[in-house]
Amino acid sequence: MKGIILHGGHGTRLRPLTHTGPKQLLPIANKPMSQYALEDLREAGITEIGVIIGDVYPEKVKEFYGDGTKFGVKITYIYQDKPKGIAHAIGLCKEFVGNERFVVYLGDNILRKGLTSYTKRFGSSNAGAMILLCEVDDASRFGIAEFENNKIKKIIEKPKTTNSNLAVIGVYFLTPKIFDVIAKLKPSWRGELEITDSLQLLMEAGLLIEHDIVTGWWKDTGTPEDILHANRLVLDSIGTTEQFILNEGATVKGKIIIGKNRTVSEDSFILGPVVIGNNCVIGPRSRIGPYVSVGDNSVLNNCDIENSIIMDNVKIDTKTHLTDSIIAAGCEITASNHELKKQQFLLGERSQIKF
Per-residue b/e over 95-133, b at no fewer than 16 CB within 10 Å? Predict the structure, then answer.
């Protein structure tokens, strides 16, 4: 079985964070969100992976993942010239897939349970496809599966009204039969080839579509609020038997993950769950946590930070209380004379704020 990770899209709702790179490389708990997808595929025994890249800094994707060797997989890059929909991206993979069954994983989704049990089930099934479903509060934001007699009757993209709250999440188990369906698709009102339309046509052609309900949680990281929430969910796994895979060399102390060569001053305090990268300096007089991830080579002085993502090479040296913030790589926040107060920032790469 092969895997496909969708790594395209413009990430307009995440600007300015996506002005300088694809959204799937934004870190969740110090790890690019698409790496969670790759590791899920690898842990399920899928090591031949196609990565769909678009026109948003594809060289950064290739630079990070390379040929996949350092992640224990083999990566083939497939180019999509414009974001024309999930089904369009899948259609580009016909040659890569060949005659094998395959799994499509959206690179901006994170799944708590992983894929192993689902992959085993699909591998021994005669179904034309298998989809994973998750209960959601707002059905109008997702593709929704409607049922009749406990079987999927219809799959609708972002319905205005529906009697179901089960969303089709961004993981699809497919066979090469999907390519014939995609070839017949017409663009939706959004100008895209919809995966929900593809699945609907599969059913209408008489093919069985199986489903499973996701246990634990699933997160689609389309907005800054979603990213912060995903960060909290991943950090909550620290110190548990279901902890997400750690980067090599990191250590766990209770609810805190600490990288190499870090320095924490005696007058500073870390309240987990928190992850701190390599070569970081915390303090003097800093309070970090809860629910904070700090990237490599960052220096945090005189500040309080909670429920925030601080990326690599960030310098904060001011009496500030950051909350619900995302600070991209290379940013600098400094002040010579500033009173401690709560602030919220969403800063793109290499931004500078001076008081």
Answer: ebbeeebbbbbbbbbbbbbbbeebbeebeeeebbbbbbb
Q: Are 251 and 233 in contact (CB under 8 A)?
A: no
Q: Say if residues 301 and 286 touch (Cβ distance below 8 Å).
A: yes
Which residues is 220 bridged to in the sheet? 109
**Tokens representing residue 123 in the block:** 């591998």
Instruction: List per-residue pLDDT tens for the chain, 355 residues long.
Output: 999 999 977 667 788 888 888 889 999 999 999 999 999 999 999 999 999 998 888 899 999 999 999 999 999 999 998 888 899 999 999 999 999 999 999 999 998 888 998 999 998 888 899 999 988 888 888 888 888 888 888 888 888 888 888 988 889 999 999 999 999 998 888 888 888 889 989 988 888 889 998 877 888 888 899 999 999 999 998 988 778 877 777 778 889 999 899 899 999 999 999 999 999 999 999 999 999 999 999 999 999 999 999 999 999 999 889 999 999 999 999 987 666 678 899 999 999 988 7
The one-letter amino acid code at 194 reads: E
Cis peptide, bond prior to residue 58, ω within 30 of zero: no
Only one residue has tokens 């490389």, namely 25
CA nearest neighbour of 235 among 169, 294, 304: 294
Instruction: List Cα–Cα distances, 217 to 67, 97, 153, 210, 329, in angstroms.
Output: 30, 29, 25, 20, 28
**Which of 241, 153, 155, 171 minimizes the C-alpha distance to 213?**
171
